[in-house]
């Protein structure tokens, strides 16, 4: 599988496949079979997170295929997990990482990301709320959380650490003080949100960008009926017919050609297989330019809908990342 190497990954001995399997929104009873299907057709990169509440089932799949006498060795795989917002207190970071490792049945992670720059109140609840339904925030700064994550590298629990949903300013803020610099920033990225400025900035500071929801996350639970569908965009559909490929394959190929890692989610074996079949064709310069014209700066991963309108749940948090232009 084609891979993206990274000059700044001095402490990282592996390689990151540019197409992986995303596991967000994969329901219990489905994610194990999805991971098995992915591993069996050639995926070697699996993206996980504690907040997805399915890491134990991912671990069951890994146990079926990885280890002595089985199809794969641990060193063949690239496994990512993420630290959730309620675990930002430095004293909670290692325990959270070890919990993910236990659920996944692993002794180390290839990559561990800070899921969001925003800290929530410590505790066992994923979404600690007040009586009025608002989220209980914490004043822990992401720089302090990062310092605790660096110790995970020192202890060999993770090979590398990175960010998710950080803007350019916050990414630079981490880099300025880091002992172990972030190697990845994982963000929403698809043709309607091309993230060109953020991708360019991250490249300039030796941070690789991973695209989550690269196909537009049509199954997001808060989707409104009148919202556009990336996969049904007429220009994209026409281009796909011309290439005799699926719109999803064109999107993934577009990102691969511009050096962005993709982690499309699917639980359908045929689609899982199709999403990996993007290395036997290429897009022309004109195709790439056309893909860029689809950008609308349209974010879909907005976790609250009120009266049919998309509303940012955490916009009042002091470390909310999307008030900056990129």
Automatic annotation (TrEMBL):
It catalyses: S-nitrosoglutathione + NADPH + H(+) = S-(hydroxysulfenamide)glutathione + NADP(+); S-nitroso-CoA + NADPH + H(+) = sulfinamide-CoA + NADP(+); a primary alcohol + NADP(+) = an aldehyde + NADPH + H(+). It is an enzyme of class 1 (oxidoreductase). Keywords: Cell membrane, Cytoplasm, Membrane, NADP, Oxidoreductase. The active site is at 52 (proton donor). The keyword Oxidoreductase applies. InterPro entries: AKR, AKR1A, Aldo/ket_reductase_CS, NAD(P)_OxRdtase_dom_sf, NADP_OxRdtase_dom. One of its GO terms (cellular component) is apical plasma membrane. Residues 20-295 form the NADP-dependent oxidoreductase domain. It is found in: Apical cell membrane; Cytoplasm, Cytosol. Its main location: membrane. GO terms for molecular function: alcohol dehydrogenase (NADP+) activity. Belongs to the aldo/keto reductase family. Catalyzes the NADPH-dependent reduction of a wide variety of carbonyl-containing compounds to their corresponding alcohols. Displays enzymatic activity towards endogenous metabolites such as aromatic and aliphatic aldehydes, ketones, monosaccharides and bile acids. Acts as an aldehyde-detoxification enzyme. Also acts as an inhibitor of protein S-nitrosylation by mediating degradation of S-nitroso-coenzyme A (S-nitroso-CoA), a cofactor required to S-nitrosylate proteins. Also acts as a S-nitroso-glutathione reductase by catalyzing the NADPH-dependent reduction of S-nitrosoglutathione. This is alcohol dehydrogenase (NADP(+)). It comes from Gasterosteus aculeatus aculeatus (three-spined stickleback).
